[in-house]
Amino acid sequence: MSQFFTQKDTIMFEGPDATSPLAFRWYDKDRVVFGKRLEDHLRFSVAYWHSFTWPGGDPFGGETFLRPWMHGSDPLALAKQKADVAFDMFRLLDVPFFAFHDVDVAPEGATLAESIDNLKVITDIFAKKMETEKVRLLWGTANLFSHRRYMAGAATNPDPDVFTYAVGQVRAAIEATHKLGGANYVCWGGREGYETLLNTDMKRELDQLGRFLNMLVEHKHKIGFKGPILIEPKPKEPTKHQYDYDTATVYGFLERYGLAKEVKLNIEQNHAILAGHSFHHEVMLAFALGIFGSLDINRGDNLLGWDTDQFAMDVGELVPVFHEFLKGGGFTTGGLNFDAKIRRQSIDPDDLLIGHVASMDACARALIGAARMLEEKGLEGPLAARYAGWDSAESKSILAGERSLDQVADRALTIADPQPRSGRQELLEGVVNRYL
């Protein structure tokens, strides 16, 4: 067992009156809400990268956390130490899942072959730990954006050797994910975009990305990996424009390259905001298009214009999102992955636990409220009334393609001046507030 945290026992549910920051007030994992245990609804996952790999730096200052596994002469030994701390944290939080990038868990070697060997060592360690631990792998992925070689992208790189290297890295990552029983495999195109159109052939790059993902899907089936491939939309940062801009953009891309039946989305709140949307918008659209997969649960800062990856704490924002989530059927293979960082001034080890506990409680409280709102038809009733006219036989025949434009236009001549009805926005916002 790691000696990193002062907390030694698994964090428990103590109820709404609990005052300890290391006790759950709302997340009672066995509480049944909307026909399912909270743990099974929320499927919480700890993100390996922000929790154990990020040193606390920002664009204007370096490391603040001084993690012991980040300093030493033997990278593989440090990776093993980091794994001990990670699995201790999974136990303390009693989470069902975790997620990782390849380079989060294993050091890069001098060659791709050496990097893959290092990943295999850590994968074997994870597999051994998972034999006696509850935690399972929500998803794995390859980091195709941090290394210098990927400064101009991975799949979209102008150099085919870089493309090829990325394919080798992804094959190792999805095979490690498969070996560990991962439920999904994620692709985040951090640098699959452009900084200037003056040196960019956009059609070529999109075709490269389409072929890259098709090869990944082909290999998934070859090795028998059953989970979906997930794309994580983000509009910009670090590039000026990324090809996986938002839910609608990715859907168009998937249709264009024949991937819509194979690939779903991993949606993040902070990325939605950067795209000029709400988290609610992106989740609703993904369900509407049939490509909802999983969620990275975090938030941005409304006063800052970049991806701050803070822990989700705003219950008011989350209730409508979880209402949409429950209405759409919730997760199948996905989960709530904490792609979130404690602030760089939160330097105590237990701050890492506290951030997760507070956000898990916020999510649980929001889901409980959303379930009540759905059961009581707080929004569903007014929504059904708003579109009730489309339930008539004549309206249904229009949408079913049984009426021509002439027929519909002729009918319009028989209708008196249609009058608008109130959208009742303020009433509905008040309804949501009743369930916070």
From TrEMBL:
Q: What keyword terms does UniProt attach to this protein?
A: Carbohydrate metabolism, Cytoplasm, Isomerase, Magnesium, Metal-binding, Xylose metabolism
Q: Where does Mg(2+) 1 bind?
A: E232, E268, D296, D339
Instruction: Give me the Gene Ontology terms describing cellular component.
Output: cytoplasm
Q: A single GO molecular function, which one?
A: xylose isomerase activity
- Quaternary assembly: Homotetramer.
List the PANTHER family.
PTHR48408, XYLOSE ISOMERASE
HAMAP family per the UniProt record, alphabetical: Xylose_isom_A
Q: What is this protein called?
A: Xylose isomerase
Natural source organism = Kaistia soli DSM 19436
